[in-house]
User: What shape does this take?
Amino acid sequence: MNHTQRPARILDPGLCLTLRPMRYPEFFDQYKAAIKNTWTVEEVDFSSDVMDLRSKMSTAEKHLVHRLVAFFATGDSIVANNLVLNLYKHINAPEARMYLSRQLYEEALHVEFYLTLLDTYVPDPDERHQAFAAVDNIPSIKKKAEFCMRWLESTTDLSSLRTREDRQAFLLNLICFAACVEGLFFFGAFSYVYFLRSRGLLHGLAGGTNWVFRDESMHMAFAFDVVDTVRKEEPDLFDEQLENKVRTMIEEAIECELQFAADLLGEGIPGLSLADIHLYLQCCADERFVRLGMPKQFHAKNPLAFMDLQDVQEVTNFFERRVSAYQVGVQGKVDLDAAF
Assistant: This one.
C-alpha cells in the first residue's frame, strides 16, 4: 500500500502515515484528552497507608492487599505487551496509533505505581519476589494470566489481517482487552480498593487508583470505539459465531475473577462476601454486553453501594494531595479537516 493513501477500512493491511485529512478525529480527541490527564507516581502519598498496614488492618485484610498488588504488578504489563504486539500493528490509522502510544506510556506509569505499592507495602524481600512472580506462583493470578494470553496472543503471529477469520480473531483480542481485562479484571480489583477506602483505610492507594481508574476507563472507551468503527465498516464480521465466542469469553473471565476473589477473601473480610463480588462482576459484564450491542446475560444489580458512589472524574478525597479530576493545560488548536 502507498503510505500516502488512506486504507479503505481501519483493519486493512498496511501502514498509513497520512493524518490529513483526518478520517477518525474522535481518536485524536481521545489522545488530546489523555494528555490533559497527566499525573505522576510522586504525587501519591503513601504515608498513612504504611500506618494502616502496621496498626489498623487485620491479617485477612493484609492478605487481600498483598494479593491485590501482586495482580496489579503483572496485569498492566500484559496489557502493554498486547498494545505493542497486536493493537498497534493492526489498527491502521495514525490518529488511533497516537492514542495507543499515549496509552502505552500510561501503562508504564501504572506499572511504576504498582511497583511503588509493592516496595511500600511488602517490605520482606522474599514476599516481594513472590509478588513480582505472581503469574508463576499464585494460582488465582496464574489462571487470569493464562486466560489473557490465550485470547490476546491469538493474533500475535499474524502479519496482517487479510481474511475474515483473521479480522474476527483480532476483534476477539480487542474485546477481551476491553471487556474482560480492563472491564472485569481491573474493575473487580478496583472494587477492593474502594471497599477498603470506605472503611477508612489506605487512602494513598485509593488516591492513586482514582487516576489509574480514570486512565483505564479511557482505554476501555477507546477500544470499544474501535470495535464500533469496525462494525460500521465491516458489519458482516459481527455474526452469531462471534457473539457466542464473546459470551463464552466473558463468562470464563468471570470464573477466573471469582477464583481470584475466593483467594482474596478466603480468610474472611467482614462486610465483603464472595456472593457480592459475583453479583458485581455480573453487573459489570452486563454493561460490557450492552456496550457491544448484545443483550444482558445476568440482569444483576450492583450490591456494592460504595462503587455506585465512585465517579473517578469528580472524586475529591480529603486525604488526597489533589483532585483526581485534575488536568494539565494543553495549548493550541488543531484543524481536523485541513489538508497538506
In short: The longest helix spans residues 164-198. The two ends are 20 Å apart (CA to CA).
